[in-house]
Structure formats: structure tokens, C-alpha cells
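Lab notebook: predicted structure, single chain.

Context: the supervisor wants predicted structures on file for every construct in the current expression panel, including those that have not yet been purified. This is the next one on the list. No modifications to the sequence; it matches the entry in the shared construct table.
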Amino acid sequence: MTSGPSGPRPRPGVQEPGADRWRPAARLTAATAAVAALAAGCGSGPLPSATRTPPALELQTFDFGGDFELPAHTGRIFRLADVRGRAVLLFFGYTYCPDICPTTLQTMAEVEKLLGPEKQRLQTVFVSVDPERDTLPRLKEYVEHFGINAVAVTAPPAQLDPIVKQYAAYYEKQPSDSAMGYLVDHTSRLYLIDPRGRIRYLFRYGDEAKAIAAGVGQVLAE
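Prediction complete. Output recorded below exactly as produced.
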């Protein structure tokens, strides 16, 4: 279980918010496991997941999260309240992240493709926990590379940390011999926020785009 900040917890019987944290040393991805599973399952057996309709998510209403405002890569202040009426997929990370963050943003691109015209009702929010290196111009270049409807936000720790705590999240610098400098240990979950601004589901790193798109569709249909 994550030893993150104390604070609001999810309602009984729902996914533990602090249980999903990424450390830089953990490089085994869900894609590796998926390839192994498909190789072992050639021939008869269940259809590959890409051909199956994902089951409906058991949506919950979490008692943490909520509105915030932070400077965005657009040069304006982003306010979560300003995207009411749209679904939001929010996650914490940083641009120097070697694998989790770019993979998550690529998954968001797949989600948008699956949603089709409904993608106009989805907003991805990338909260950088590395304000020391992630300037707004760098964030702009980074998120625009993925070609999705994403806004990247960050701020100095005094402004950022209360929001991290508000979302029961976590981050911590880790020394590294990498040419990129230090790495950051950070929460890797993906928050599904409904059009009313409530957290309804916590996706884990490696969850498939098809399942995430289905979840977005669920909250948009409510």
C-alpha cells in the first residue's frame, strides 16, 4: 500500500487510492504480460481481449479529489470546474518519465480513436510533479506531440502539493545516474472524473484503451 499523504479515503468497498504507485526501477509493463499470454494461448481458447467487449465498470463515487486550478501549457490558468459537462482523465507524471507517462499518453490517443466523435467530450489532464524541469513551454511541446485533447499543468510545490494530497496521490524525487538527471517516484493511476467533477474510477497503469474508453462512455451516458 502506498505510504502517501494522509487524507480522504474512498468509500468502503472501492479500490484503495494509494495502492498504485510507480517506482522508476519497475520497467515490466502490461504489454509484456499480454504478449506472453497471447503466445501461450494460440489455438483454441478465449478470444483475444481486442475482440471482446469489456464489461461495464463498477463505478463508484470517491470522497477525495475535487476542483483545483493551476497554470497550463496554454499560457492560461486551467480550472477543473471549467470543463464541467465533459469526462476527464487525469494523471500525475512528468516529461522526463522514461516509460509510464508516454505510454499513458499514447493510450489516451487510442482512447480518443475508440470514442470517435465523442472524444470532443473528453479532456485529458496531465499534472506534472516535476516543476523544476517541466516548464510550461516544455509541457506544451510534450503534450502536443501526442496529438490529443490534453492540457498539461504544473506549479511550484507550495501550490502543487495541496492538489497532490487532495487527490490522495504521491511523488518523490529519486537520485539516478541517468543522463536525464533525477527520476521521480509517482502515483501511476488514471483518474476517471465524470461531467459533474466527481472521481468515479481509478484505472491502473496497463489497463487497456478499450476498457478506458468504455468507462468514459459510461460516465458520459449517465
